[in-house]
Amino acid sequence: AAGSVLLCTAAVLLLLAAGGAIPPPEEAARMARFVLHNCDWGALATLSAQEGLRGRPFANIFSLSDGPPGPLGGSGVPYLYLTDMEISVQDLEINSDASLTVSLAQTPYCKKHRYDPQNPLCAHIIFCGSIVKVNDSEAGLAKKALFSRHPEMESWPKDHNWFFAKFNITNIWVLDYFGGLKIVTPEEYYSVKP
């Protein structure tokens, strides 16, 4: 009996380590919200505008946040803090289309379950859409979301002309179980609680 209590306690701790109970695979929209909210960074792919790479895919890592950490803190909107000096941002100025991948591999969840990052059970989400600067009314939300998770951002050089942006989601694919990708619409995504 003591062994099963220890196992049960360990299972609860594993779930809490990933930011709360992981949604079941049949709730793909909730899974997408859960994974994004528990990730601090993602791989953003743009179409390169750089000499020698023009038109080719170019993936880069960006810190992001959809809201302060903790349950119920996520808006579902991936916010970013960007500067025109960054190579991928220069790509986005030519073509704002992008894709963004976030994975539970960056949380303790997959390591503790011994899931390889490519294992579907180590859930990852692929968003397609575009990057847009946020308007003044949304800048406060973006700042709170980002600086609560990435406090170092506040001290980044002011002369780099940092600005808040968001990933405007048009398509969502969820890979969190065996059997292939699941498609979630932005409407489904924003209508569920993470």
Automatic annotation (TrEMBL):
Key words of the record: Glycoprotein, Secreted, Signal
Subcellular location: Secreted
UniProt KW Signal keyword: yes
Pfam families associated with the record: CREG_beta-barrel
Keyword Glycoprotein attached: yes
Signal peptide location: 1-21
Record PANTHER family: CREG1 PROTEIN (PTHR13343), PROTEIN CREG1 (PTHR13343:SF21)
Family: Belongs to the CREG family.
The protein's name: CREG1 protein
Organism per entry: Pampusana beccarii (Western bronze ground-dove)
Gene: Creg1
